[in-house]
Amino acid sequence: MQLKPEFQKNADALSMLYVRSSTGNLVRLDALATIRETTGPVTVNHTGQLESVTFSFNGKAGTSMGQITEAVDRLALDKLPQTVSTTFEGTAGAFAESMNSLYFLLFIAIVAIYILLGSLYESFIHPLTILSGLPSAAFGGLVTLMLFGYDLDLYGMVGIIMLIGIVKKNSIMVVDFAIEAEKTGITPEEAAFKGATIRFRPILMTTLAAIMGALPIAMGIGAGAEVRRPLGLAVVGGLAFSQIVTLYLTPIFYTYMDELQKWLEERNRNAEPAQEEA
User: Fold this and answer.
1) Does residue 276 surpass a pLDDT of 70?
2) Of 165, 169, 160, which Cα lies nearest the Cα of 130?
3) What kind and span of H or E run contains 50?
4) CA-CA distances (angstroms) from residue 161 to 117, 134, 138?
5) Domain assignment of residue 65, yes or no
6) 13-52 burial, b if ≥16 CB within 10 A, otherwise e?
7) Do 31 and 112 fall into the same domain?
8) Beta partners for 20?
9) pLDDT tens-digit profile of 45-87?
10) Under 8 Å CB-to-CB from 245, ≥6 apart: which residues?
């Protein structure tokens, strides 16, 4: 609804408007509302057609964006009524969106690795054996962050994703050797044990090299390194823990997964003659 230009500067013109009541009669607007002049904001911001107010904040030096947004969320939850909804804009909004997408990227990375390993070994089972070391690496990274008092922020998530690529090569060394050794006629248990013992030195060397490369970041050396420290802590803690656990878990997983694969192959061979007879 819009008044003619000659009435737009006269507030009393609003009293000349009529609205229809529930009974169908026309009622003047000034009978329903009081019109008065007062001071108001120059502009009214809207977000999604709703009135909104923007609050700006800055974090102190050495504080990560994840800690800042978490503190702001707690403050808004305590001070604002439940009828008010909040959202982040600007740098904080981009950070929140990136954190939401990182979990999806983590899932996509694991699926992509599984597909590549499945194509490499021509098996649905052995990629699961290789990926069995990822939970221990993630557990070690998360525990390290918790011990040093850091949250799982953007840099911490990047460190967890880096662990996927670094840790799986330990399992690949063991599984690749065990598959070739099993072709010589030894049992899966012996093949997995030999793979863990013979490949122990290259696994240890590559893990130590990766830990030494991430150690300066974990120690927080350099300008602005305090913000990136969760990345180094996640990598160092995950590698150190998975180095110990993987050498025990991978042979066990390989033994059971190899038996599962042979059982599936035997069942498929028995099912084919039955289908031909039918």
Assistant:
1) no
2) 169
3) strand 50-51
4) 17, 10, 9
5) no
6) eeeeeeeeeeeeeeeeeeeeeeeeeeeeeeeeeeeeeeee
7) no
8) 26
9) 777 777 887 878 777 766 667 777 778 888 888 888 888 888 7
10) 133, 136, 140
One domain for residues 113 and 213: yes
State the total domains in the chain: 2
Q: What is the DSSP letter of 187?
A: -
Neighbours of 248 (CB within 10 A): 11
CATH number of 251's domain: 1.20.1640.10
Give me the domain span that covers residue 9. Answer: 1-38
Residue 184 in any domain: the answer is yes
Of 50 and 232, more confident? 232
pTM of the complete model beyond 0.70: no
Q: Which residues contact 261 (CB under 8 A, 6 or more apart)?
A: 123, 125, 126
Same domain, 228 and 116: yes
194: its two tokens: 């030999």
Here the tokens at position 243 are: 């180095």
The verdict on 138 and 241 lying in the same domain is yes
More confident residue, 65 or 123: 123
Beta bridge partners of 126: none
> Does position 90 have pLDDT exceeding 70, yes or no?
yes
